[in-house]
Amino acid sequence: MTFGQDIAIDLGTATILVYVRGKGIVLREPAVVAIDKNTNEVLAVGQNARKMLGRTPGNIVAIRPLKDGVISDYTVTEKMLKYFITKVADKSIISPRIMICVPSGVTEVERKAVIDAANHAGARKVYLIEEPIAAAIGAGIDITKPYGTMILDIGGGTTDIAVIALGGAVKSKSIKVAGDKFDEAIIKYIKKHHNIAIGERTAEEIKISIGCVYPKTVEERMSIKGRHLLTGLPVEIEITSTEMLEALKESANQIVEAVHSVLEVTPPELSADISDRGIYITGGGGLISGLDKLLEERTGIPVMIAEDAVSCVAMGTGKALNHIELLETGNTIKVKKF
Q: Domains, the chain, ranges and CATH?
């Protein structure tokens, strides 16, 4: 008898990761779609579309259909999901069951948009799991225990903070300050202080190479190219990690303040657990240099970066697939079923 596939999707603002039950993570591509505006035809998806960002002729537009962790362009998201599902799905005539992770602060309308997009893209049944829960599972934390664990999941569009105990989020908060906001801050800083315009891809390369939110022991330098705003000509300049610290300071402080605000409303017993067990950072945005040191300094709590932080949410969503049968029989698991 053929049962069809079970697929888990980390529907990230910047990157899509797809996990197939029994195979692990089988796909990791940018959440970018290139479309011909005249015909509405999808020309490229993922890595091929990302290469077109900022480089397309008038009739072609390369867009990111997810913004701040939620769907901003429903039609394009549906086409993108269909492309990725078709790419990884086997040739079974039965459509796959799909579990998708969503930020903890999404509204019912935003949840419904994700479910509808997945259904129209070919899912047989759709389940939602909140990102901090998936991140904790992916980081190897046993979320069913009665003690508290704090997860700080920083993606491209959102930062999710949650205190997890007994299989669910006791306290949680989602803010729209994450990897993309770091990129925007770098673009603004270079425009303001150097009179040079750079694109999203260059900003991301700077963030990965020399970006930091805590002073580095040795200053790092990087040469970048952009367009001078006064002459309109291409130029090359050198920037430093100290400048990036200044550029990213405000965004980093917003994340620290959000962690503080969750800690302030956490029950005392769970606060004691977090003080002992520490804060776990997951997500690609959490890999920015010095964030763990900044949080430790400001909260006095040990901070650990999860192993393979980028894949934690996808891995956790994939592991949650193992409990789909329990969901089908109506047992309580902190995953929403639709």
A: 6-134+313-337 (3.30.420.40), 143-177+248-309 (3.30.420.40), 180-247 (3.90.640.10)
